Amino acid sequence: MTLERRVERLLGSSLRHARQWPGRLRRTILWSAALLCTVVLAGVISAPASLSQQALLGLLLVVAALVLRRFEGRLPIIAMISLSLIASLRYMYWRLSETLQLENFHDTLFGYTLVAAELYALVVLVFGYVQTAWPLRRRPILLEQAPEQWPSVDVFITTVNESLEIVKVTVFAAQGLDWPEDKLRVHVLDDGHREEFREFCESVGAHYLTRDTNLHAKAGNFNAALRVTQGEYIAAFDADHVPSRSFLQIAMGWFLKDPRLAMLQTPHCFFSPDPFEKNLDTWHSVPNEGELFYGLVQDGNDLWNAAMFCGSCALMRRAPLEAVGGMDETTLTEDAHTSLKLNRAGYNTAYLALPQAAGMATENLSRHINQRIRWARGMTQIFRTDNPMLGRGLTLGQRVCYTNAMLHFFYGFPRMVFLTAPLAYLIFGAQIFHAAPLMVAAYAFPHLLLANLTNSRIQGRFRHSYWNEVYETVLAWYILPPVLMAMIRPRSGHFNVTDKGGDLHPEFFDWKMARPYIVLLLLNIAGVLFGIYDYLGADDTTDITVLLNQLWALYNVMVTSAALAVASESRQIRSEPRVEAQLPVSLQRADGRLLQSITEDFSQHGLGLRLAEGQSIARGERLRVSLFRHEQRYDFDGTVVSSQGRNLGIQFDPLTLRQQSDLVHLTFARADTWAMSWGTGKPDSPLAALREVSAIGLHGIAELLRATVRLLPLARRSSPPSALDTP
């Protein structure tokens, strides 16, 4: 029996009796308990302490957290959060009350800039604990009604510049959803006004919708389709997000249970690596940037009825959506703003942490950064024009969840401060802490260690330690100006579509994207060298101060060098990604012999497989490939285009539309394709993650040196680089 269960059993009888008390009495007791806890916490936070007392308290808090970290369940996590908050709030109280007696202008400038960044980080930490302390972990509700009683559904597939090859897969998968045929209509919403899309839709039985203008981008496209369709529900998918055939049956149950439910979001997962995973070779070994949000944060939001619409892979009830005026058209993150409006209007939103669709990740660093810039600008626009902390219609929990989602994109300023703060002392000699260095360590280290340990325990499967700093460092320089501009002029900016597919390129170093990281790396290395010089003739107190700042600068060197590694773009030789999957397959050779095998991956036009021991097939041989669904067999003719021992790569002959549809249903649209491997990575280990990020940092420095050598005149004469390999 877990610790959580034991406590519940002990409290069970008392809680049952408490429910019978009058409402006013219960509220009085709750408020009194909250007030008492606040008074006690305030006393613990503000209690003065000597150096030895504070060091002992910090040590006890860290040891307690290390012990609690070994227990399963939510109650140990709540206890760790409490310890972390004590250390962090105590640090900030001491920081504000004891360390800001700064004496001159540049000390004041650097000191207050740093404390502003620390206050931001503390607010985000506290709000993050509220969001993630107790995820709801909603489960699907099976449909009990007969299929003829199921509601009608319109599937919206929005597109503007994606290729037909990408959109085809999504359309075929949507048409194969397990739903009564007379209650399902698939619509392609084409803001690209392309005749080939119209012809394709007509040939496969999908509905082609377009409009005269592209006003309000994706939101305008969605709303135009909303006005000419009639389904009771709308399933929203981006052009590259391929739904599993079980999507509607998995998602619909909660709508039939809750008449106030307006939107149910499912995770965004990807069948191709993003630039971090591709360039750092961490695909399937380190959780990607988005997994924390879809693996944990959205589940935590769901507890507070604040699950956010993310633009795709979601099911929506038409009536509430029309009641709030359709998709929001006033900001660049129309999806999140729409769910905010639904919650303000009193409707419920939900999140189901079960992947039912997958798409293509951004393929290079510049595209990835441009996408995040749009998200940052849009969330800042909402913060300025429809701030969730203001106005009516939201609970306190909803306000915290939405506000933290928006505050997240303000990290550009504090991240740049943290990456340069030690230089204020090491290079400019600024005293940004008016305190003894050992006292700084006694307060700061427990705050940092407990925050790291607690978040590692909460986020372990979906975010590894120190990776957040790498992600933010890569993006901070680029999202800071748009965020500041959106705060000043919230109506500025326009919707930029993220390009997907077709990015074939050789290996190259993206000098343009890497420039900020190079500058930050060199500055922190210079800070470490200045610190070495400062040791000469320094007294004991100065020695410790220099050492602390050097350690900080060395940490920044690790993070910025890891960011440099992301800017070293790996070679992209495939125009379409291959999806890993183990599916039974039968191979018929030209002489009629049959071989049984298992696929390793597949794409729209072929598959890779591994033959049994002792078998081999030569390159160029013709085969008939058979895939199976239930008892039915589907045949595809193809040619072996690669043969390495037992590993084969097979390219299919040109497929008919019927065959293309069948292939999608057999591969991309399988109900278990995405859910089996999602969220199953190894749990976080802070020390292992530190070694991992450090190794990647060394790789980043090596890549920078290699790219620099390529620019030397001799290297240019002997081996002219690609145009992509120039700054």
Automatic annotation (TrEMBL):
Pathway: Glycan metabolism; bacterial cellulose biosynthesis. This is Cellulose synthase catalytic subunit [UDP-forming]. SUPFAM superfamilies: Nucleotide-diphospho-sugar transferases, PilZ domain-like. It comes from Pseudomonas vanderleydeniana. Residues 155-324 form the Glycosyltransferase 2-like domain. Gene3D superfamilies: predicted glycosyltransferase like domains, Spore Coat Polysaccharide Biosynthesis Protein SpsA, Chain A. It catalyses: [(1->4)-beta-D-glucosyl](n) + UDP-alpha-D-glucose = [(1->4)-beta-D-glucosyl](n+1) + UDP + H(+). It is a multi-pass membrane protein. The lineage of its organism: Bacteria, Pseudomonadati, Pseudomonadota, Gammaproteobacteria, Pseudomonadales. InterPro entries: Cell_synth_A, Cellulose_synth, Glyco_trans_2-like, Glycosyltr_2/OpgH_subfam, Nucleotide-diphossugar_trans, PilZ_domain. The keyword Cell inner membrane applies. It is an enzyme of class 2 (transferase). Its main location: membrane. It is found in: Cell inner membrane. Pfam families: Cellulose_synt (PF03552), Glycos_transf_2 (PF00535), PilZ (PF07238). GO terms for molecular function: cellulose synthase (UDP-forming) activity; cyclic-di-GMP binding. Belongs to the glycosyltransferase 2 family. Keywords: c-di-GMP, Cell inner membrane, Cell membrane, Cellulose biosynthesis, Glycosyltransferase, Membrane, Transferase, Transmembrane, Transmembrane helix.
